[in-house]
Please model this.
Amino acid sequence: MSIHHPQALSLFDGSIFRAAVKDSLTKMDPRILIRNPVMFTTGIAAMLCTVVFVRDFSPVIGQIAGWLWFTVLFANFAEAVAEGRGKAQADSMRRTRTETVAKKIDTIEQTNWKNTPASQLRKGDLVVCETGDTIPGDGDVVFGIATVDESAITGESAPVIRESGGDRSAVTGGTRIVSDRVVVRISVDPGHSFLDRMIALVEGAKRQKTPNEIALTILLVGMTILFLLVVVSLPAFAAYSNTTIPTGFLIALLITLIPTTIGGLLSAIGIAGMDRLVRFNVIAKSGRAVEAAGDIDVLLLDKTGTITIGARQASEFIAFSGVNERELAEAAFLASLADETPEGKSIVALAKANFGLSESLLSGPSQFIEFSAHTRMSGIDLTLDGQNAAIRKGASDSLLNLAGLTQQTAPKDVIQSVEKIARTGGTPLLVAKNSRLLGVIHLKDIVKPGIRERFVTLRSMGIRTVMVTGDNPLTAAAIAAEAGVDDFLAEATPERKLELIRAEQKGGRLVAMCGDGSNDAPALAQADVGVAMNTGTQAAREAANMIDLDSDPTKLIEVVMIGKQLLMSRGALTTFSIANDVAKYFAIIPALFITAYPALSAINVMNLSNPNSAVLSAIIFNALIIIALIPLALKGVTYRPASAQSLLRRNLLIYGLGGLLVPFICIKLIDMLVTALGLA
Amino acid sequence: MTWLGFAEIAAYMAAVTVIAWPLGLYMARVFTHQPTGIDLALGPVERAFYAVCRIDRTKEQHWTEYAVACLVFNVIGLLVMYALMRLQELLPLNHAGQSAVSPDLSINTAISFATNTNWQNYGGESTMSYLTQMMGMTVHNFTSAATGMAVLVALVRGFARKQANTLGNFYVDVTRSVLYVLLPAAILFTLFLVWQGVPQNLDPYTQATTLEGAQQIIAQGPAASQIAIKQLGTNGGGFFNVNSAHPFENPTIFSNLAECMALILIAAGLVLTFGRMIGEDRSGKAQGRALYIAMSLLLVGGILIAWWAETHAGALAQGTMEGKETRFGILDSVIWAAATTASSNGSVNSMHDSFTPLGGMVPLVNMMLGEVVFGGVGSGLHGMIIDVILAVFIAGLMVGRTPEYLGKKIEAKEIKLAVLCLLVFPLPILILGGLSLVLPVGLAGIAAPGPHGLTEVLYAFTSTSANNGSAFGGLSGNTPYYNLTMSLAMLIGRFLVIVPTLAIAGAVVGKKIVPVSAGTFPTQSGQFIGLLIAIILIIGGLTFFPVLALGPIVEHLMSVNGSLF
Model:
């Protein structure tokens, strides 16, 4: 299970490259540079070094000054490339909505509209959208039903249904109406849509630093001050030792010691992390949420659509004693006719196939009762054979309740058949007519192939998976066992889901979940990482801190991995950067003092040819390593799900030990080149 | 280097561990207010003390109150001690007729003892009255050690408690440290030392006629009681000028072994106390053990390097005995030298100035690591926990989670405070040390020329900043300039670390405890021990490598070529 990149841009796309080169120059503006304290220090050092060069006209100092400027430019370039890639992604989305003209109306009934530019729409405005129109902004359908092409956002070409009321009312700006007409109430002010927020996350200038990035920046500033202290005090110790250190060399020492590598790449890593998420068609509302994703301890996964393939299939009608099997099938058929869920459709199909029923069975006025999470049943009120009939189908406990029974008082055969289905992991759906239980429909759940392996991996990463389902405990247990989740929440209501999240959080755990319905909103808001499906309601999308444009709940797992990869990339480059300093000391310290104490040549372990070349080589390495690591910063370090112990071992070996050894080799090679070219 | 020598080092570490273990568990009971076994005897004393001082033992303090209490307590102690020295001429128990101590030396000495540094710019027997020694030095040996323990216990509570506000009560923690830990241990150890022949009296100095007919004044006094606590409380300020190289401070091979163990014992025990207080749901034992092993490896590494350097001193086949007591020899001297600088004790039984450049660099580096290799009583472990926080933060990100230690998330605030501790320590060493090497007042005090002189100054400021107090010798420190600059170094090194440390405790105590999972960064594995040691060495090394290169390193390289200083 490795992270793949659905729409990977080539690492250095031509136009992005050119724009980034230009941007790296504009980012030299001190007002922008000060956002990055390490690079700001480097900029000042480069300026000082240039002054020294102008004063003394020493060619070595001139070269050092040049490389210091390059160090800053390279860091700017890294940020600019990351931004460029993010912007390219965002621009393609933004393009779809820039020139939209909205058809603004004042009331839902109004038929004549006023043409208004989309950018002037405010929260609460109503707009009409008809076939062929582009929806001017994020909002809720308040009237009508339409098919919408959301491919501009999701890349998915099949149009989706959007209708007022229910859980499919939210529409996104920039998507296009394929058929029919809807009235949309705009839900955000201009500049605050999800797209706007996402664009802000991938644009360096407006980007808020994430908590972890702030902490790391503090550490880097601390190390910069520490080395400033070392370098500022060194001339006194040198003076006592009868030697003076050229100012240019002192500046070079400072810059090689302060963590320029991670300092230069830090914001690029952050931007690239957001960008990776966007590429997965997930929009994060804040960088904080992406970081939190890496910390997740518990994943709440809805059973349906995530663990099992969305549609449960009706496989059998089991009539209770005294009930004709055909009567049961007819009742189930009628109750499901208006039920658009795959389960409902499969009941209709099964009844048609086994009992030859047809839609003509339904005649006369009828009222469809929609499923709600509270009643946990649906059905139909109609006139059947001249009598009023209320047919209901639903979860066993709610139907028992309807029939005035409990687990204890219900007839034995009812309980037996329900339990038998539940034990096999199926879902028993009781059917009742006028509160009389007729029988049970066996809905079969099908666990997604490969999902079990994913849970094993998650467990090895220390993440617990909890399956959330409206099913009864027996059914839930059977599916939980089959899918290999760690725990399950059966007979879940929105309240119980919220309770579960609070309980986990009270125990110190971070919880992630995804949801789409309005009743998921409180839980989404409570969860540390709440991913709303793009098809979900506006309430859910407001409450969540991420939105999955593809509405694929399994993506929660990838989101966690992207969060982890982001933190790991920062840690790896920090470790690498600090480890590098050891070699730089061995290059520069003998060079500084060898005239005063020739004996110190013993610690010139790289055997660098002369002091000038040693200092120059170290500073060249320091600049070039930033360029060399840009691809790593943008792609993120390789992440394979594993325990913390083995991740640490692997990364310490590569970035710790590697960081210790690589500069020794590189500085030596640069020194040979510098000497061969006669640069120092 | 002989097998017997290796066996001695192993036996030393084993003996320390065997005693530190039960001691650590006992101290955990003291600080968690569980029955200790001697409550019957000490409980009434403790309650009476609270009643007299109007301390409400049930009142818990927020970190700011705890810090203020800590500072107020220390400032008052400091002033009392200053007054004692300035007024000793007028006060009783001044048999030797010591005159008032000069203002700058009094400031230096008062700060030195209040900060648990015990740097001595004076010779005890020639400067201080018995009253000053007993009420000033000895009392501060207790209170400064107790302050360190209290701050540590507060920090440990910060990690141990879940979503709490308070860290305990400073006054109660100090009282219990003294009453239940330091006093009983010091009494036992004093009796042992008296048995071994250390003087404990209030007699005037003895006039003696030597075999050659010369007159000699033999200094004595209440030595055993002060030596016991100066070892146990990682204070290190000797009763006599040459400290534990003096036969009255350290008369026998047994007293040497016992003193050498005592200077590390409580600091070592506190590591195990920490593990016990964290509790088994976060595998506290293993967490404490990991830090104990990391500290032990650093200590033994130092001993081995110093031992090697002292036994391979150029042309001297038997190694160098300069500055060492013939009674103890090379190995006992280097074990002491390494242990006294690793722990923030600072007492000596040999003169570090006379060690070979590399041998002398070991004590110096031990202190430069920030006194975290067991370190001072309390202060060593709280310094080590700061290093752990930094290590966990730097490397912890590499497992893809917000770094956490003992289930507490390490975030911007903790890093800010830890970085502050990291910066405060080298500040006086590099700035004041550097100044002393260019200002004429500084240069005037240096005895040896060249790199060795640089090392003398570097050592002095490292020792005071790190609150160690061991002297390299060679530097004439009793001048107004050095007295005052070193006072500043000691104050910065102590209180500018204690306050952010307590602030960290205050920050983490309110946090939730994240349960352990396979995704948790392991802080008790061998891998982590290696990582922690590497981070400590790299951070210390990066900070001090340039100055070390100009001091002991170049001196060593030159001595290989035959130049000596």
About this structure: The first helix of chain B runs from residue 3 to 31. DSSP finds 19 helices and four strands in chain B. The CA atoms of residues 309 and 358 of chain B lie 6 Å apart.
